[in-house]
Amino acid sequence: MLLALDTSSPQVAVALADGDDVVADLRSEQTMKHGEQLAPLIARVLDEAGASRTDLTAVAVGAGPGPFTGLRVGLVTARTLGLVLGIPVHGVCSLDVLAAEAVATDAVSTAFLVATDARRKEVYWATYDATGRRTSGPAVDRPGEIETEHPVVGEGAHLYPMTFPSATGPVRPSAGWLARVVARGLAEVVAPEPLYLRRPDAMAPHPPKAVS
Amino acid sequence: MNEPLVLGIETSCDETGVGIVRGHTLLADAVASSVDEHARFGGVVPEVASRAHLEAMVPTIERACETAGVRLDDVDAIAVTSGPGLAGALLVGVAAAKALALGLGKPIYGVNHLAAHVAVDQLEHGPLPEPCLAMLVSGGHSSLLEVDDVTVGVEPLGATIDDAAGEAFDKVARLLGLPFPGGPHIDRAATSGSSVYVDFPRGLTSRKDLERHRFDFSFSGLKTAVARWVEARERAGEPVPVADVAASFQEAVCDVLVRKALDAATTRGIEDILIGGGVAANSRLRAMATERAADLGIRVRVPRPGLCTDNGAMVAALGAELVARGRTPSALDLPADSSQPITTVVA
Ligand SMILES: [Zn+2]
């Protein structure tokens, strides 16, 4: 069975799939607190599906982009589970998961854009053709810098309705769709490396200040 | 029954530590440090540390298992630092520990970093004397604690009211043009200097201060005094005698630490002092504490330098003690608590 988890959005998402059949698909009730909510949710999907940790054959993880702290919780969890269970870990760009769901549920029928919340008045975004194939991105920019007449999928469209008036499709990535993306090969599978897209905020120190 | 095999994870600052112990026996202590990535910033950058923890986690776990000659399946329990420390850094370790616990179907203990600094000495010198007075000194903490049972709780007697002792070492090292982290460089420079060259102030030792802050520390005034002294020299166009300033500064820090630790031990009727944390690796502190304590009939225990700095073995050591004493494990929704109080040993 494939365990899928995504922590790139404010909501932790965990699902379990048997082949391409999603047998459990959960989201955290609270937003944030990824570190507290992820492990109990994994225990719950296994429980709901009547499965045990030894039934797992692979892990899929949303590689972001997303706020760093939460993103790392998902990636380190997926990698460590892969190590301890001796199973492969597949990474998928979290924007591709939103795109796959939007196409499969007919929310879009033309080229489109996916935009999610990058905080600091910016969005993580990528563009897709009508079949859901990524044509540019992922990148991080201010909404005003991204011009599009196309429909926009994801939370970014809801946060910046003036810039992105044509919101459509899913708002946050679902783990069920992450599992389907991997099972059906709907998007590129990559190494479970975080898509930070930003460098750490770090400043070289000033020379010591005089004290007298 | 065999003694418990425990894997401990430590990510509260810039070291990714994974230790494996069986009871009081250390089997592996793997550490990956991101200290070089922080050096040019003169201090630990939280986001840089967190990124490094994610990359180092799986390889460090693998390295620890290889060194210990055990398989993850053999592990009886997982212990992890849940606080105090850098929030984002702690979170990486806690999440990895939960994944191990889930994947192995074994219990997890989220433990206090400071209590782990105390427990680590069991790996070197056997069971802790009960009670003992613990002095923890590092870049993040400077505390005096009374420890009756390290798995239950510790009583804080005093702590720094401003900078941590290790922080003072880092700042003074920068003033003297020595690299980060400052501790080992000051220690080395001081060996060829005179400790009585400058009579730097001893913080919170005046009679008035002792009334309110008998077991507390203050190092910010000392740091300022060193800065003033160095600047005066530079203004006068004279060279700064780095070795002498380092030795005099180090003497002032150690003098206050040892004085207060001995005062606390004698006041509380405790005959054993345990020194832990990165600053416990300082050679002058170890020598001075041992020497002065002996005059009072007090024993001093200091783990070897490699176990004083942050590592996974100390977390595993505390975990093993918790298992051995049948303490209740943490829940899977265990939070990382950047300001976990010292009185909470298991979160
Ligand atoms: Zn420490």
Structure summarized in a few sentences:
The complex is a heterodimer of chains A (212) and B (347). Chain A is of the alpha/beta class and 212 residues long.
Give a verbal description of the structure.
- Chain A folds into 2 domains: 2-93 and 173-184, ATPase, nucleotide binding domain (Nucleotidyltransferase, domain 5, 2-Layer Sandwich); 95-168, Nucleotidyltransferase, domain 5.
- Chain A is 28% helix and 24% strand.
- Chain A is built from 5 helices and 10 strands.
- Chain A has helices spanning 34-48, 68-85, 94-104, 155-159, 175-184; strands at 2-6, 13-18, 21-27, 58-62, 89-92, 112-117, 123-128, 134-141, 152-153, 167-168.
- In chain A, the strands form 2 sheets. In chain A, strands 3-2-1-4-5 form a 5-stranded mixed β-sheet, sandwiched between helices.
- In chain A, helix 1 packs across helix 2 (68-85).
- The N and C termini of chain A lie far apart (67 Å).
- The model of chain A has no long low-confidence stretch (mean pLDDT 94).
- Chain B has 347 residues and is an alpha/beta fold.
- Chain B folds into 2 domains: 5-120 and 311-324, ATPase, nucleotide binding domain (Nucleotidyltransferase, domain 5), CATH 3.30.420; 130-303, Nucleotidyltransferase, domain 5.
- Chain B is 46% helix and 18% strand.
- In chain B, the strands form 2 sheets. Chain B has a 5-stranded mixed β-sheet, sandwiched between helices. A 5-stranded mixed β-sheet of chain B has the order 8-7-6-9-10, sandwiched between helices.
- In chain B, helix 4 (113-119) packs across helix 13 (312-324) and helix 9 runs antiparallel to helix 10.
- The longest helix of chain B is centred in the C-terminal third of the chain and has 27 residues, at 242-268.
- The radius of gyration of chain B is 20 Å and the shape is globular.
- The A-B interface holds A 33, 35-40, 42-43, 53, 68-69, 72-73, 75-81, 83-85, 194, 196, 200-205, 208, 210-212 and B 40-43, 45, 47-48, 50-51, 53-54, 57-58, 61-62, 72, 87-88, 91-92, 94-96, 98-105, 171, 174-175, 224, 227-228, 231-232, 332-336.
- Bound molecules: zinc ion.
- Chain B: Keywords: Acyltransferase, Cytoplasm, Iron, Metal-binding, Transferase, tRNA processing.
